[in-house]
Amino acid sequence: MIPPKFDYHRPTSVQEAVQLLQSSPEAKVLAGGHSLIPLMKLRLAAPAAVIDIGRIPDLRGIQALDSGELRIGACTTHHEIATSQAVQRAAPLLAEAAAQIGDRQVRYRGTIGGNLAHADPASDLPAVVVALNATLQAEGPQGSRSIPAAEFFVDLMTTTLQPGEILTQIRVPALGQGTGSCYLKFEHPASGYALCGAAAIVSLNPDGSCAQARLCFNGVSARPVDAAAVAQALVGSDLSDGAIDAAVEDHLRVPDPVGDIHASASYRQELAKALGKRALKAARDRARG
Ligand SMILES: Cc1cc2nc3c(=O)[nH]c(=O)nc-3n(C[C@H](O)[C@H](O)[C@H](O)COP(=O)(O)OP(=O)(O)OC[C@H]3O[C@@H](n4cnc5c(N)ncnc54)[C@H](O)[C@@H]3O)c2cc1C
Fold it and tell me: What is the pLDDT of residue 169?
C-alpha cells in the first residue's frame, strides 16, 4: 500500500518546526521514518502533513559536556550512537543497546528521538535511558522543558510529550569509575524487536561490594519496567552469583506483563528473570574489569 496524500515540510530550525506543528495540528513529525512511514503505508496513520525534522542541524550529533554528561541530538541515528567513542566511554550501555537495534539499514536511518517518542514497548532504548537516569529535552509552543526519562513513558506508545512538542535532545550522565553495565535482549527472530530486553548497571565499593545497581526491562510491559526492588536488594551485597540470583528471584515483579502471539506473559516474565540475572552478572564482571 501507499500512504494517503499529505503535505510535506522540511524546516531548517527547531523554532520553524514548532511553528509548523502549531499551524497544522494534524501534522506528524518525521525523523528516520522507520516507524512512521510503515504506519502510513498501512494507513494506520494518516497525517495531513509531515514535518521532516531530519535535516535540522541542531538536532544531530553527540557532545561530551564539561559536566561529564552526554548531549545527544534527537535526530542522531542508532549507528552514530553505537559507534561513538564518546558514548562508548561515558555510557557504554547506550552504545551496546543501539548496536543491537534491527539491522544496519534500520540503524543508519532510525533515530534516538524517534525511538523514544514512538514509545514502542519492544524498542531497546526506553529502558536504557531510564536505567541511565537520562533527561529528555522537549521544545514546544510554551518553550522548552526537561523530562526525566523515568517520567517520559506513560503507556503503550504514549509519552508525556504534549501536542506541538518536539523532542530535541537527550542528556545522559556519565557512568562513574568502578561501574559496569550490560544490555541483553531476547529478540523476535523476524523483526529483531525485543521480546524482553534487560539493561543493568552495577557500581562497586572499594571493597568490591555493591554500591549501586540499576535493572530495567523493555518488552515485558507497556512501558519500561524499573526493577528498583532488585537493585535495592543488591546494595551492600557481595554481588556473588547467588546474591544476584536471589535478588532477582525474590524481588523482580513485572507489573501488567504483556502477552501476545509472540510470547505469553508468563514466558516474558521468565525471560526477564533469566536476562536480568545474566545482565547483572555481566555488568558486575565489567565493573570488576
Ligand atoms: C525492520 C525494523 C526493525 C526494527 N528493529 C528495532 C529493534 O530491534 N529495536 C528498536 O528499538 N527499534 C527497532 N526498530 C525501530 C527503529 O529503530 C526506530 O527507532 C524507530 O523506527 C523510530 O525512529 P525513527 O527515527 O525512524 O522515527 P519516525 O518513524 O520518523 O517517527 C516515529 C514516531 O515518533 C515521532 N517522532 C520522531 N522524532 C520525534 C521527535 N524528535 N520529537 C517528537 N516526536 C518524534 C514521529 O512523529 C512518529 O510518531 C525497527 C524498525 C524497523 C523498520
Answer: 98
